[in-house]
Design brief:
This protein is an alpha/beta fold. It is built from nine helices and eleven strands.
């Protein structure tokens, strides 16, 4: 039974100072089951820091952090550094510290469009492939809350669109809450339910259409035509290499999912 709108995570009046600089100032944020919340803001705005506070990796100087008791969190970090001489396959990476069945492993990789990479050395994967592998790792936790820090970093424009659509499908299938950090304003706004604009404090928040015309948002990002709300609909998806997969083939479980 779905439990949409259940509060999964929340920060209230969070403040944090690092090396004499206030990096978070009275930040309120909430994520409910069934919604995608996107955290946007310029470099140095405190987005990744707020994620670390929410995960319990950093303690705020003031304010409170709430996580629903027993909530399962899947976390996709902004970047991952792996020693190039370390012999590590995708299979081994995904099962480190968390064994899972072959069926489960292949099912998650199929969902993110990376089934062909199971035995590949992870150091040999492209930027887009690695992002899908990291997403698969987060999904192996069967999360109630999925936290994605710059999930399309290093991915080309076509891959970004497909990853955002994939994230929406995951939300629908799991009925989970998703907190996503992104710089891709014009793309992500067509995917998210709610936007929180952060620049050490919350400048504005709400529906993407409302935020895009908010004076605080425009003061940070301007009214450039390149940041218009982006909607993109077509009757096909792309596999992990960018090749077109018709919608009917995808529904039959064909190779790769966008």
């Amino acid at each position: 039974m779905k439990k949409s709108n259940e509060l999964l995570a929340e920060t209230r009046d969070v403040q944090l100072t690092l090396r004499g600089r206030r990096v978070l100032d009275q930040v309120d944020l909430a994520v409910h089951r069934g919604e995608i919340v996107t955290l946007i803001g310029p470099n140095g705005a405190g987005k990744s820091t707020l994620v670390r506070v929410l995960l319990g990796l950093m303690k705020p100087d003031h304010g409170s952090v709430y996580l629903r008791p027993g909530v399962r969190i899947g976390y996709m970090p902004q970047r991952l550094l792996i020693d190039p001489v370390l012999p590590l396959t995708v299979r081994r990476f995904l099962t480190l510290g968390r064994p899972c069945s072959e069926t489960r492993l292949q099912g998650v990789l199929q969902e993110v469009g990376a089934a062909a990479l199971l035995e590949a050395p992870i150091q040999n994967t492209s930027g887009g492939e690695l992002q899908r592998i990291l997403l698969a790792r987060a999904l192996l936790r069967d999360p109630d809350l999925l936290i994605l820090d710059e999930p399309v970093q290093g991915v080309d424009i076509t891959g970004q669109l497909d990853l955002y659509r994939l994230i929406s499908r995951i939300r629908d299938r799991l009925d989970c809450g998703i907190l996503m950090v992104s710089h891709d304003l014009h793309l992500v706004m067509a995917t998210t339910d709610r936007v929180v604009c952060l620049n050490r404090h919350v400048c504005c928040s709400g529906h993407p259409q409302d935020v895009s015309s908010d004076p605080a948002y425009l003061a940070l990002f301007g009214a450039s035509p390149g940041l218009a709300l982006y909607t993109h609909r077509h009757n096909h998806h792309h596999d992990i290499h960018g090749h077109v997969v018709p919608a009917e083939e995808q529904e039959r479980g064909g190779p790769g999912r966008g």
